[in-house]
Specification:
By secondary structure, the chain is an alpha/beta fold. The protein has twelve helices and 19 strands. β1, α1 and β2 form a beta-alpha-beta unit. It binds glycine.
Length: 384
Amino acid sequence: MSAAPDVLVVGGGVVGSAVAWWLAREGVSVTLLERGELAAGASGAAAGMLAPIGEDAGRGGPLLHAGLRALAGMDALCEELRERSGIDPEWRRSGILRVARDDAEAARLQAQASARPELGLELGWLDGAALRAEEPLVALGVRGALLSPREGHVRSPLLARAFARAAASLGARVETGVAVRALVRDAGGVVRGARTAAGDLPAGLVVLCAGVWTGALAGAAGAGEASDRALPIEPVRGQILSLDAPLPTLRSIVWGGSTYLVPKGDGTIVVGATEERVGFDCRVTAAGLRGLLDAAPRLVPALAGCTFRGAWAGLRPSAPDHLPLVGAWPGTIGLFVAAGHHRNGVLLASVTGEIVAGLVLGKDVPPCARDFAPARFGPTGSAA
Ligand code: GLY
């Protein structure tokens, strides 16, 4: 391999691709290595929602703030990526209807509708009649819905490819089919690059963006030994399926309980998702599909008659506090991680790239960078 880049990004999912894009945009020499195809892992399996409200579970914390920052930047980001890469990530500000299936959910969602107007999300409560005027396909028993018009969805593999191609257009080297076997450390323990089948690639800094495989790579670099703590990222399987949409289809994402229905531009509805701690098992199972296929028509009865198109699964990389780890891995010089985005890799990809680029260049970073710092899990961190 030739010319050492300043930064070597390992992993071509939506997060690694976004990191490469932000660095390239700042003029940093960057190489992105992906062992398979771009977006072959969790990014390829995701429904592609940008939904900070639901994922924050009402905590009002860093996830919400980072998510709102991501949402606010989405129109301009996708426009810039489309121009640079020629790929349209299919960002649609479709809105999300979080539906109330009983009185308790109605009370909770109605309270959310009037809370925190300063966030600018334009939330509103729709009673049953107003909901069915908005989305006639929603089940009659549904009491109402929290309408969140500013959230939406992308096609996440397209977003990853758009980031990577836009980075390449700015000089980044993007190589697929190149697996990193280990990280290269010098005698002082400093990470100096990565080992691949094609040889060692030296780099000033390595950023691991390998989703659930990030921990194994960090361990191979001795990060666990150096910090006396392994990277705390666990796989959480999400199974997902798609159906041909009824005609006319849904306009908004409809979300009830743990089930969401995302109407895509190709005439399908994506139904997600399970949340299962089954290790690195990425299979689609009968039980997983049965749960989704039972739940979807309870929200939108017409889905029971729709053609089944396919099903797949991805492994969400999850830290114990469900926040991502973005920044320097404590105790190991030359190593950053950007992983552990749990259910929010698509939502937080761009903010993650912004944080990494800011840290690398010593620039200002968004306030959430403090909450996402991997040091919270290091030897003296508080979240471990
Ligand atoms: N972002 C939704 C999920 O992970 O299921």
